[in-house]
Design goal:
The structure holds 3 protein chains of 3 kinds. Chain A is of the alpha+beta class. Chain A is built from 5 helices and 12 strands. Chain A has helices at 5-16, 97-113, 145-159, 207-212, 239-264, and strands at residues 32-36, 44-50, 53-64, 75-81, 122-124, 128-140, 161-166, 171-181, 190-197, 200-203, 215-222, 225-232. In chain A, the strands form 3 sheets. In chain A, strands 1, 2, 3, 4, 5 and 6 form a 6-stranded mixed β-sheet that branches. The radius of gyration of chain A is 19 Å and the shape is elongated. The model of chain A has no long low-confidence stretch (mean pLDDT 96). Chain C is an alpha+beta fold. Chain C has a single domain, classed as Ribosomal Protein S5, domain 2 (2-Layer Sandwich). In chain C, the strands form 2 sheets. A 5-stranded mixed β-sheet of chain C has the order 1-2-3-5-4. In chain C, helix 1 (87-100) packs across helix 2 (127-141). Chain C is globular. Classes of the chains: A alpha+beta, B alpha+beta, C alpha+beta.
């Protein structure tokens, strides 16, 4: 059910005092639960719960041709499906703009942060490289699917093992993993979405808070470096606010990221 | 929670009773000499009548039900309401307590607003609602929450005991729609949120005995926090 | 080789299923939901409805429409599947509808739709059976009136021997007469079959034995489905 206009008014009023319905402070995440290795046939997989929100992410490898502008680097393909199983607001059929945007924002964070070392995923320069498929599925939507997916993607990529490549036959053995992990760098792109409700900015909104939101800014951040960004929704952001959001993002990263790291080590 | 506190649960297809000593009630079916459950829920026995009380399932409107809904559309003749049933309901302009011109509907209640109404009747054409009775009308402010309509009797309690307890303890006004939509209004948002949590507590624990006492304990704990 | 000497690759007895796990209420947003697993095969099902039907022209004025949607997550198998429907998933969705609808008492919901979404999280054969078992539980959990539950299992014939609940390696068995895959679904408490498919080679006489074996296995499956439903009554809102 859509959140009632009356409830939204209450959410806005309460937030004007800095308070949220579930008692959290404006910069506080819900409890994060991460489980890795949840799907054996995936090279890597993870389930992430943010309160009642749940997403599942799987990583698969395949062989492909490199793009002409990066003949010595592996490929990345991120897709997201917002399953009708996870909420009555999603419909069956081709992916809608919400899932396309989600996948693209996450894709840019991984790519630009060089979280995956794509140079090490080249088999024959100009001819054959590994393609990393990252597939995201929503299981239950209670707000902030994007950040849940972002956390799931980090966890699933860190969980991923390489597949065996038969050099003589030039073929992948899909059922055999090696002991090697996917080659990664130290930059872990943490996706963080900040929402403006009334005159306050919050993080990790529940679904009803999301419905009260008039503007959002997603950043992909590691410490104080930004790798990707997306402003969503209609309401404009002042220059002063944009500056404050940079501080908020850094502060939340410091608070939340260690909790994620702890669970995926 | 001990096993004793849980009420007996049955699933569809399960034989509840054998022989002719019992009569099949709601949520059951007689098949030859057996009474079989056709719904997932709790068994209730009254004299010889056996019923299954479901805790899930769609809201089925009945005449006289007070429901809470949202205005989805406005036509020349009245308001189209979403009451969480399988189809939309309709409040004809003539069922508004005062005379209004057909041209002015939008100014009286606009799209997205919440209304407490009563089911007048269910016809082939659809569900008709009225606002002509005390306690019915447009909702000005408060929190709207939703629970499964099958849990409404537990939230209200025998003779309103449960809901009155919540109202008194949280100092709020609460209107429970039979469709599971609930309107909570207090003088402070904190009170409304406590009432909301209390209702969710009751609805999540609908399957245990002695729920009123459990709720009292729970509210005491919450107030200490 | 006699039946007694035949050894299954994972050491199971011929009439033994893999470890069965079932849980209800795993998707809070859904009206009903369940997980069902045969060993490494994990199915998740969510039910929404009865609710308003779109597109309008697919409405049935006599009863609610049951609309099943089976899909495998892209990484549920070794070789990644492209997300979205394909011919196989569309066929399984349909036979799942046929397997489940006979137990539903949905004449009281004309013009509406009951949506059942099945997602295979991890696949090691028998995914349609796991999906049907999860969906039957999710339908009961959603409060849909039902004559009975549905329980489903696959019977295999490996060379000449009937076995219960095929896994992937068994599905690919090549010795002797090779592998035959026969999924079944039944009313849990009655002798009524709602799903019969076959892939392979088997005599009519031995197929009759396969039916009996499937029915027996489904009794055990039903006990697990029942227990999971009874454990989680009323939780969530």
């Amino acid at each position: 059910m859509e959140t009632s206009r009356l409830t939204i008014e209450r959410i806005v009023n309460y937030l004007s005092e800095g308070k949220r319905f579930d008692g959290r402070s404006t910069d506080e995440f819900r409890e994060i639960i991460i489980e890795t290795g949840i799907s054996k046939n995936a090279e890597g997989s993870a389930r992430v719960k943010l309160g009642k929100t749940e997403v599942i992410v799987g990583v698969k490898l395949g062989l492909g041709e490199p793009y002409p502008d990066s003949p010595d680097a592996g490929n990345l393909m991120v897709t997201a499906e917002l399953l009708p199983l996870s909420s009555d607001r999603f419909e069956s059929g081709p992916p809608g703009i919400e899932s396309i945007e989600l996948a693209r924002v996450i894709d840019r964070g991984i790519r630009e942060s060089k979280f995956i070392d794509f140079k090490k995923l080249c088999i024959t320069e100009g001819k054959k490289v590994w393609t990393v498929f990252v597939d995201i599925y929503s299981m239950n939507d209670d707000g902030n699917l994007l950040d849940a997916a972002g956390i799931g993607v980090i966890a699933a990529i860190k969980d991923a093992k390489m597949l065996k490549y038969d050099e003589e036959k030039e073929k992948v053995i899909f059922s055999e993993h090696t002991k090697d992990k996917l080659p990664l760098s130290k930059n872990v792109p943490f996706s963080l979405t900040m929402h403006k409700i009334g005159d306050k900015w919050i993080v990790d909104p529940t679904r009803e808070e999301e419905e009260a939101s008039e503007s959002r800014l997603t950043v992909s951040i590691s410490e104080d470096i930004l790798y990707a960004m997306q402003k969503g929704n209609l309401k404009e952001i002042s220059i002063k606010e944009a500056g404050e959001l940079m501080d908020l993002a850094e502060r939340v990263w410091k608070k939340v990221f260690p909790k994620i790291e702890k669970q995926i080590k | 929670m001990t096993e004793e506190e849980k009420r007996k649960v049955v699933i569809p297809g399960e034989v509840i009773a054998k022989g002719d000593d019992y009569l099949p009630g709601e949520g059951t079916e007689k098949r030859e000499k057996e009474i079989v459950a056709i719904k997932y829920g709790l068994i209730e026995e009254q004299d010889r009548l056996i019923k299954v009380i479901p805790l899930s399932g769609v809201y089925i409107p009945r005449r006289g039900n007070v429901v809470i809904g949202t205005v989805e559309n406005i036509t020349y003749y009245g308001w189209v309401m979403n009451i969480g049933a399988s189809e939309n309901a309709f409040i004809p302009v003539s069922e508004f307590p005062k005379y209004i011109d057909n041209e002015d509907l939008e100014e009286v209640i606009s799209i997205g607003e919440v209304v407490v109404a009563k089911v007048l009747g269910i016809t082939k054409r659809g569900i008709d609602l009225t606002m002509k009775s005390s306690g019915l009308g447009r909702v000005e402010e408060g929190i709207i929450i939703k629970i499964n309509s099958n849990k409404v009797p537990r939230v209200i309690g025998k003779g309103g005991s449960m809901i009155n307890l919540i109202k008194t303890e949280t100092n709020t006004n609460i209107t429970v729609g039979q469709n599971g939509i609930i309107w909570i209004k207090g003088s402070k948002i904190e009170e409304e949120l406590l009432a909301k949590k209390a209702i969710v507590f009751v609805s999540e624990k609908s399957y245990i005995h002695g729920l009123t006492d459990k709720l009292k304990e729970w509210i005491e704990e919450q107030k200490k926090k | 080789m006699t039946t007694k000497e035949f050894k299954r690759e994972d050491g199971r007895k011929l009439d033994e299923t893999r470890e069965i796990k079932a849980e209800v209420g795993i998707i809070p947003n859904a009206d009903g939901s369940a997980m069902f697993a045969f060993g490494d095969t994990i199915a998740i099902a969510a039910v929404y409805g009865p609710r308003q039907m779109y597109p309008q022209h697919q409405k049935n004025p006599e009863k609610s429409v049951l609309r099943c949607n089976y899909s495998m997550l892209s990484f549920s198998v070794n070789d990644r599947i492209r997300p979205g429907p394909n011919r196989r998933s569309m066929e399984i969705s349909k036979i799942t509808e046929w397997a489940l609808e006979p137990v539903l008492m949905i004449e009281q919901f004309p013009n509406m739709v009951i949506d059942v979404y099945i997602a295979i999280l991890q696949a090691n054969a028998s995914t349609r059976c796991a999906g049907i078992n999860a969906a039957a539980m999710a339908l009961a959990h959603a409060g849909i009136p039902m004559k009975d539950l549905v329980s489903s299992v696959s019977i295999g014939k490996l060379d000449k021997h009937l076995v219960v609940d095929l896994n992937k390696k068994e599905e690919d068995y090549e010795e002797g007469e090779g592998a035959t895959d026969m999924p079944f679904a039944f009313f849990s408490n009655e002798d009524k079959i709602t799903l019969m498919q076959l892939d392979g080679n088997i005599s009519t006489k031995q197929y009759k034995e396969a039916i009996e074996l499937a029915k027996k296995a489904c009794k055990k499956i039903y006990e697990v489905q029942k227990e999971a439903l009874k454990k989680t009554i009323g939780e969530g809102d």
